[in-house]
Automatic annotation (TrEMBL):
Catalysed reactions listed for this entry: Hydrolysis of alkylated DNA, releasing 3-methyladenine, 3-methylguanine, 7-methylguanine and 7-methyladenine
Protein's name according to its UniProt entry: DNA-3-methyladenine glycosylase II
Organism: Teichococcus deserti
Keyword DNA repair: yes
Gene3D superfamilies xrefs: 1.10.1670.40, Hypothetical protein, domain 2
Length: 224
């Protein structure tokens, strides 16, 4: 059952988010160690963001960018190929960019759903609640909830998204809380209620905590 729809949250407010999260017993020390939030959403259309997300699925970032560069090169004069152009491409041209068969099918479906209006423009997306956007876009081939959550945070700048299925977010909480094991997604969702309406910022700080721990630079709360 869907959660009741609510208006789309306003954009990220780093100062307000930092003030709110600093009071949290687990996130507070992370915020103080990391400092100001530097998350700045990219100005892209949702269609482009989804195609790029598909390209990056399960491959190294450099390989994904190489495939996207070859795709863009097929459309001189365009910053990014329009969905109509993608649909007009022969299969061998799309495969020639390096995309797998599954990725080709997903990219074509994103283009088809964009032409048909299921994938909203950036402007139209600003009027849609988070959960409505998620439910619309997960109907696209190859697009799951996590992918849409990344779009909501990094493209649309939504302020209150907590991707509880994300490994880095759960690992960041494990590190910050000094746990032996990562919390389950459902448990983290419950914990994260206290971070609303700044759960996107909370996710960003948890990613930073996981990164610092990977580099052996994370300071336990008692050492901060």
């Amino acid at each position: 059952m869907l959660a009741p729809s609510r208006p789309a949250a306003r954009g990220l407010s780093p100062r307000a988010a930092r003030a709110h999260l600093s009071a949290d017993p687990v996130l507070g020390p992370v915020v103080r160690q990391v400092g100001a939030m530097t998350l700045k959403p990219l100005t892209r259309e949702p269609y482009e963001a989804l195609v790029r997300a598909i390209a990056h699925q399960q491959v190294h970032g450099r390989a994904a960018e190489a495939m996207l560069t070859r795709l863009i090169a097929l459309f001189p004069g365009q910053d990014f190929p329009h969905p109509e152009g993608i649909l007009a491409l022969p299969d061998e041209a799309l495969r020639g960019c390096g995309f797998s068969g599954a990725k080709c099918a997903a990219i074509r479906d994103i283009a088809l759903k964009s032409v048909g209006g299921l994938v909203p423009t950036r402007r139209a997306a600003t009027r849609l609640p988070d959960e409505e956007l998620i439910q619309r876009l997960v109907a696209i081939r190859g697009v799951g909830r996590w992918t849409v959550e990344m779009l909501l945070i990094f493209t649309l700048g939504r302020a209150d998204i907590l991707p509880v299925d994300d490994f880095g977010v759960r690992e960041g909480y494990r590190v910050a809380a000094g746990l032996d094991a990562q919390p389950k997604p459902k448990a983290l969702a419950a914990i994260g209620e206290a971070w609303a309406p700044f759960r996107s910022a909370a996710a960003w700080y948890l990613w930073r905590a996981a990164d610092l721990a990977k580099e052996n630079k994370f300071k336990a709360p008692a050492a901060i």
